[in-house]
């Protein structure tokens, strides 16, 4: 819940703040809830997927990946924090030692621009803004921002070593009325113009599929994962069945609570709200003379999806020991990039963490076909 006005005023000097006008500016730590928000640079762009297509190189489509450098063609269902030696994310212990705490991996499909002549070019990501005295996110290279939310001490159970999950359906091409699960925000101008509402909650600027008009400030993706777990399985054959949304379905992201009501009886364990936030730098692709002749929007996911309805996100948990649980239960509340129980690293260290691509193929030039989509109807 939001703090009363008088209490907010009293804490104004002590607590970090969001930028004026940003929807998070009224959220403040110290009220018992936790909202971790931190940037992660890109660790690799590659056509592999250790969750859905383990052992397969190349996998069917390209991904952009952030997090620990244990990312590989296959990742054993084990404690990933013991496999990686660095992370691209801001939360980390001294990565030169064996005490790393934050080595999870997150990945999504890439976005490409399809020109009128039928060729493709990868749309790069741009750093998200710094909020709450964050000095890391705006200095990241590629990558995206990750959120973890817990309503307070004892309200969520942190993921366990070996846990992994997938949200979204890469084969989907029609609206499923799941805008609160994944959405796109059309920035109206520079400096994240129009970013005045919670993710996926703006009736005009947020859409379930790709925006159909030019977005002067770029396009942002939000991917929200389920918040209920069966309490037993660390994974499932479809990487989805062991988790579920609350009885009320995907809920609006508040940064302080986990909406949607109680968890279903089949998945009774409440887990932290995990959300990915990616900013696609589409600003160089706004000339409609380069868009398809029929006037349709020109962006396509690396799966070959021109609708955006197939947006999805993969997750492999890699926090060490009880570090995430401690953060979710932090009595004083952890806010943004500041949490007394977690150590951080400098942007230069995160930007230096990388994985060599396994599949050697064109990534940034103009392409006749999307990687892996050669000969497929688009």
In short:
The chain is 5% helix and 20% strand.
Task: Describe the model.
By secondary structure, this protein is mainly β. It has one domain (about 35-378). The chain is about 5% helix and about 20% strand. The chain contains 3 helices and 18 strands. The chain has helices at about 5-10, 325-330, 345-350, and strands at about 35-40, 40-45, 65, 105-110, 110-115, 120, 145-150, 165, 180-185, 205, 220-225, 230, 245, 270, 275-280, 300, 315, 335. It has a 7-stranded mixed beta sheet with strand order 10-9-11-15-7-1-18, with no helix packed on it. Strands 2-3-4-17-8 form a 5-stranded antiparallel beta sheet, with no helix packed on it. It has a 3-stranded antiparallel beta sheet with strand order 6-5-16, with no helix packed on it. A hairpin with a 5-residue loop joins strand 5 (about 110-115) and strand 6 (about 120). The radius of gyration is 20 Å and the shape is globular.
Query: What percent of the residues sit in helical stretches (DSSP H or I)?
Result: under 10%
Overall pLDDT level: 88
Low-confidence stretches: 1-20, 93-100
* Number of separate domains: 1
Organism: Ophiobolus disseminans
Protein name: DUF1996 domain-containing protein
Domain DUF1996: 49-319
Search tags:
7-stranded mixed β-sheet, disordered N terminus, globular, DUF1996, 378 residues, 5-stranded antiparallel β-sheet, 3 helices, DUF1996 domain-containing protein
């Amino acid at each position: 819940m939001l703090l009363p006005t008088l209490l907010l005023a009293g804490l104004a000097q002590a607590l970090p703040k969001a930028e004026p006008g940003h929807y998070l500016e009224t959220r403040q730590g110290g009220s018992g809830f936790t909202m971790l928000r931190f940037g992660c640079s890109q660790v690799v762009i590659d056509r592999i997927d250790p969750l859905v297509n383990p052992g397969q190189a190349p996998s069917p489509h390209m991904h952009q990946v952030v997090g620990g450098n244990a990312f590989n063609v296959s990742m054993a269902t084990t404690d990933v924090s013991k496999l990686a030696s660095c992370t691209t994310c801001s939360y980390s212990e001294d990565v030169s030692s064996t005490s790393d705490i934050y080595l999870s991996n997150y990945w999504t499909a890439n976005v490409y621009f399809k020109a009128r002549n039928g060729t493709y070019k990868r749309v790069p990501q741009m750093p998200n803004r710094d909020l709450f005295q964050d000095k890391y996110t705006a200095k990241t290279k590629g990558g995206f921002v990750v959120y973890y939310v817990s309503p307070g001490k004892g309200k969520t159970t942190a993921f366990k070593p070996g846990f992994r999950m997938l949200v979204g359906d890469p084969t989907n091409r029609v609206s499923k009325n799941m805008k609160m699960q994944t959405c796109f925000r059309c920035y109206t101008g520079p400096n994240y113009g129009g970013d005045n509402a919670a993710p996926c909650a703006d009736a005009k600027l947020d859409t379930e599929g790709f925006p159909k008009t030019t977005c002067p400030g770029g396009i942002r993706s939000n991917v929200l994962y389920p918040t209920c777990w069966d309490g037993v399985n660390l994974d499932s054959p479809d990487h989805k069945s062991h988790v579920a949304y609350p009885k009320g379905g995907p809920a609006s992201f508040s940064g302080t609570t986990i909406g949607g009501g109680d968890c279903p009886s089949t998945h009774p364990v409440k887990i932290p709200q995990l959300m990915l936030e990616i900013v696609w730098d589409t600003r160089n692709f706004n000339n409609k003379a380069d868009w398809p002749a029929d006037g349709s929007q020109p962006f396509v996911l690396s799966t070959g999806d021109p609708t955006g309805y197939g947006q999805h996100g993969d997750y492999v948990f890699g926090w060490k020991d009880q570090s995430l649980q401690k953060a979710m239960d932090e009595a004083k509340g952890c806010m943004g990039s500041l949490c007394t129980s977690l150590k951080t690293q400098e942007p230069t260290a995160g930007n230096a963490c990388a994985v060599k691509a396994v599949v050697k193929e064109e990534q940034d030039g103009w392409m006749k076909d999307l990687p892996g989509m050669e000969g497929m109807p688009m």
